[in-house]
Design brief:
Order of helices and strands: HHHHHHHHEHEEEEEEEHEEHHHHH
CATH class of the largest domain: Mainly Alpha
CATH superfamily of the largest domain: Butyryl-CoA Dehydrogenase, subunit A, domain 3
CATH topology of the largest domain: Butyryl-CoA Dehydrogenase, subunit A, domain 3
Number of strands: 10
Number of domains: 4
Largest sheet: 8 strands, mixed
Structural class: alpha+beta
CATH architecture of the largest domain: Up-down Bundle
Distance between the termini: 72 Å
Radius of gyration: 24 Å
Helix content: 40-55%
């Protein structure tokens, strides 16, 4: 250290400058080659550190998703959140163009590899659910509503893919994936929730006692659907919907998955909900009035819809956890930015160690949730307990981190322009959809049921 004093070196209050001999970054450079392999680290941010740990195809996926989010979502985030709620079926030119751009970028049909879909073949050495988790996190980090507008599409397509029926995939999934890749603003939607059934559509005990609201009645070489679905993401603008209905005179165990096309006689979007968060994506109430569905538009076979529904949720709950990580990261980004530019007593807030402690906690909770998601999603066959743990743990973390960001920003957090209140509104919804977090906690116990009963019996016998 010659030519200037240690005090003159740039540093945060309470810390040594990174070039100071007593800082780890400088001290490690004096170690031998073998030691440096274990101790030296580059001066790169946490996002880059974590990205480099991914396999090369997934690194590219994360970088591409991040670039798309910054380029296409960020300019629209605030204006679409502030815009008036759209009437059913209406899609602004800006959102229509965004969907088209996402399709051309390969972000809508990437559940299948090219040429069947738009996913790069090299990615498919790794599980689909992990790919989806990486993509949705980066989109959610920039805007929750626009992320959901694009990502609910994958949820709608998933029952078709999970059916494993080559004919259904060829007739219903592939044509839409190809249209999306050409830039046509076309989407899938997933319709399970009914006016009287939120959690009952996602949990077996409630479903056992629930009277189905959408019912399919046999009619010649097809079925007539009657009833209503609610809170269907993108249901009013989707071209193809996977709609779950019980067979007439039977319970939820008869649930069957039907393909319903936009514009089918008797099918209409009644209204869009006025939502607190994720406002760029509609939540629609859908009406089915004698909607005819031919036999060859049944996915997976009669009475197999409940299994397809539960399997879809097992695959979707980890990406929901991942998008919550995106919210937590977005809130953390805002907090760091605020702490670096806002001054108190003549110096930026980042120099105050109480602020540093809070930022470190937000960083730790976000990174921990991400690690849980990435580790759990690295499987081709997600278990219900694992998926549910990811969902409720990550979404609870997102709300907690968003609240910490708002605490740090103080009265500035209430200003829409600063983004913190938007992240909180978006994050809060994640604790409710894809099964409330209470239902997801019960799903963990459901998976452990047989083991717990065996232990209980053994204990009673003892």
């Amino acid at each position: 250290m010659t030519g200037y004093s240690r005090a003159a070196m740039p540093h945060l209050d309470g810390h040594l400058a990174s070039v100071d001999p007593l800082s780890p970054a400088a001290a490690f450079t004096r170690l031998g080659p073998v030691s440096r392999r274990l101790a030296t680290y580059d001066a790169v941010d946490q996002w880059e550190v974590e990205t480099r740990r991914l396999p090369a195809p997934l690194q590219r996926l994360r970088r591409d998703a991040r670039a798309f989010a910054l380029r296409e979502l960020r300019p629209l985030a605030q204006q679409t959140d502030l815009a008036a709620h759209a009437e059913p079926g209406q899609l602004s030119p800006a959102l229509r163009d965004l969907i088209a751009r996402a399709g051309r970028a390969g972000l809508l049909g990437d559940m299948l590899p090219m040429p069947l879909g738009s996913g790069r073949p090299a990615r498919f050495r790794h599980p689909i659910v992990l790919q989806q988790c990486i993509r949705v996190e980066e989109l959610a980090r920039v805007c929750g509503g626009l992320m959901l507008l694009l990502s609910a599409n994958a949820l709608g397509a998933m029952p078709i893919l999970l059916s494993g029926d080559p004919s259904a995939i060829r007739r219903f999934a592939m044509p839409l994936f190809r249209a999306q890749r050409r830039g046509e603003p076309r989407l899938f939607a997933f319709a399970i929730t009914e006016p009287g059934a939120g959690s009952d559509a996602e949990e077996g005990h409630g479903a056992r006692h629930y009277k189905p609201g959408v019912v399919a009645r046999r009619d010649g070489d097809g079925w007539r659907l009657n009833g209503r679905k609610v809170f269907i993401s993108g249901g009013d603008i989707a071209d193809t919907l996977t709609v779950f209905a019980a067979l007439e005179g039977e319970g939820m165990e008869s649930w069957t998955c039907f393909i319903v096309r936009r514009g089918a006689p008797g099918f209409r979007a009644v209204r869009n909900e006025l939502k607190m968060g994720m406002r760029a994506s509609t939540a629609s109430e859908l009406e089915f009035d004698e909607v005819f569905v031919p036999d060859d538009h049944i996915i997976g076979g009669l009475r197999r819809g409940w299994a397809l529904n539960r399997a879809t949720l097992n695959l979707s709950r980890m990406p929901v956890g991942a998008l919550a990580v995106g919210f937590a990261q977005g809130a953390t980004d805002l907090a760091y930015d605020f702490a670096c530019r806002m001054r108190l007593g003549g110096k930026p807030l980042i120099h105050f160690q109480e602020v540093q402690l809070q930022l470190a906690q937000m960083t730790a909770e976000t990174s921990t949730a991400r690690a849980l998601i990435w580790q759990s999603a690295d499987t081709w066959t997600p278990r219900q307990a694992t998926a549910s743990i990811c969902k409720f743990q990550a979404t609870d973390t997102a709300v907690r981190v968003a609240e910490m960001a708002m605490d740090l920003l103080g009265n500035h957090a209430l200003l829409h322009a600063n983004g913190a209140e938007k992240v909180f509104r978006d994050a809060r919804l994640t604790q409710i959809f894809e099964g409330t977090n209470q239902i997801n906690r019960l799903a963990v116990i459901e998976d452990f049921q047989d083991q717990l009963l065996a232990r209980s019996t053994d204990g009673a016998a003892a």
